[in-house]
Design goal:
Helices cover 36% and strands 13% of the residues. With 171 residues, the chain is α/β, with parallel strands linked by helices. Helix 1 packs across helix 4. The chain starts with 5 loop residues before the first strand and ends in a 9-residue tail after the last helix.
Length: 171
C-alpha cells in the first residue's frame, strides 16, 4: 500500500446528491486507503436535503459536506488527485479543467435522484437506489488490488466498474 491515500474526486454537475453520496461512501469504505472529495461543474451551493437525510440515516458522517466547484481542485495547492470519476452524464460530457498529475478518469453514470418527483417515499426511493448503485461500484473499486499499477489494466477495470449492471437482483 502506498504511504499516502489514493485521492478520488467524484464529479457531477450540481454536486448536491450523487457525488456527495459517493464521497461519503468511499471515505467510509476506503478506511484511510482512499481520500474522497466531490465537486460540480455548476454547484448548486447546497447539499440536497434528501441526500443528507439518507446519509445520516445510514450512519455516514455528514459534517462539513458542501456543494463546491471543481475549480477548487484545479487550483495551486489543491490535493493531488489520483482518480476522477464522473457520476452524471452531463459532467462526463463537459470540458473539465486541466488536472495536475494526469489522474485516471472513469465515468460511472447514475440517474439523478434530485430529479425525482412524486411522494416523499418515491423521492426517498430514488435516493436509496442511487446510493445502492454507487455503493456497489465503490465496493468493486476498493477491492481492486494495490498491485494493479499498470495504467492500461487499471483503466480497463475502472471502465468495467462503470458498466456494471445495476438492475436490482431478484430475491
Amino acid at each position: 500500500m502506498s504511504a499516502e491515500p489514493y485521492r478520488v474526486l467524484f464529479l457531477c454537475t450540481g454536486n448536491s446528491a450523487r457525488s456527495i453520496i459517493a464521497e461519503c461512501i468511499l471515505n467510509q469504505l476506503g478506511q484511510g486507503r482512499f481520500e474522497a472529495h466531490s465537486a460540480g461543474s455548476m454547484p448548486t451551493g447546497r447539499v440536497n436535503p434528501h441526500a443528507l437525510r439518507l446519509l445520516q440515516g445510514l450512519g455516514y458522517p455528514t459534517e462539513g459536506l458542501r456543494s463546491k466547484s471543481w475549480d477548487e481542485f484545479a487550483q495551486p495547492g489543491a490535493p493531488k488527485l489520483d482518480f476522477i470519476i464522473t457520476v452524471c452524464d452531463n459532467a462526463a460530457g463537459e470540458v473539465c479543467p486541466i488536472w495536475p498529475g494526469m489522474p485516471m478518469r472513469a465515468h460511472w453514470g447514475v440517474p439523478d435522484p434530485a430529479a425525482a418527483t412524486g411522494s416523499d417515499a418515491e423521492i426517498a426511493l430514488a435516493f436509496a437506489e442511487a446510493h445502492r448503485m454507487l455503493l456497489r461500484r465503490i465496493e468493486l473499486f476498493v477491492a481492486l488490488p494495490d498491485v494493479l499499477h499498470d495504467r492500461q489494466s487499471l483503466q480497463r477495470r475502472m471502465d468495467e466498474i462503470g458498466a456494471v449492471d445495476d438492475a436490482p437482483q431478484p430475491a
